[in-house]
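Slide 14.
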Amino acid sequence: MRSLTCSLLSLILLLVGPFPASAGQRNGFDVSNATIPVAEIFGGGPPRDGIPSIDAPKFIRPADATFMRDDDIVLSLTRGGTTRAYPLRILVWHEIVNDTLGDEPIVVTYCPLCGTGMVFDRNIGGKIRAFGVSGLLYQSDVLMYDRQSESLWSQLKMESVSGPEAGKKLRWLPSGHLTWKAWKTKYPDGEVLSADTGHRRDYDGAAYAEYFASDATMFPVPMTRKEFSNKTEVLGLVVNGKAKAYPVTKLPDGKAVEDTIGGEQVSVTFHHAENRPEVRNANGGPLPSVMVFWFAWQAFYPDTEIWKP
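Slide 15: predicted structure.
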């Protein structure tokens, strides 16, 4: 399902350009106290909220999700006895879903340029945040903002990078990444994000095809690690501040790989037919992980270890 209409890609490239001279503003956000180099914050093209977040998500039963195809990828999350699927087919057009699952406020995020789907807790410092798409990128990864403080937050860095909340961390939650066929088989009574989002988008169509077909990045990214081509897909983990990448095609099918990261034992299993990673700690509990293009992982985690068979 990885595709992008030519018109959308052309629009993004047309709009990308240098910012005005003001070093303290980007897309109307105050970056005067940024913890990242301001010169490396790029406008992705759309203005703030030009890519609209989904703030009142609706859900349907798997049998009613007729727009889905078996090999589509979904992000899956279970809380309070309820399991929900968030199709990348929808997320590619919105990048953020503000939701509450069980009694837990969560934000589902997706960056098409990095191939990264990650879920975070929206309760930060005792305050529930609502996130939007800033229209800005850092190292080709989406910069979100919270509407309460207008601080910018980096998805892959997992923290606020400017504004009143600069330096505060996001709590990364374990989520599933798997094909629609595998998900609906495993969760026939689950809930699926509806295409009735309140926005007019071609959810039956494809997005970012030209981008995914190329190994080129759309924006400048520091390339300090050359072990893999830019868009080699790796499974990324961060445990106790230590990062490690697992090249997906090298992982054995369905067989657990026992490893140690940041002094902790982890078990990594990849089910190739389902495009599904499964990562657990020594006690069998789930650990957060992300499917990510190598160029993005090495940019954010230049000291990352690499698993080798």
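Speaker note: The chain has two domains: 1-17+37-220, 222-306.
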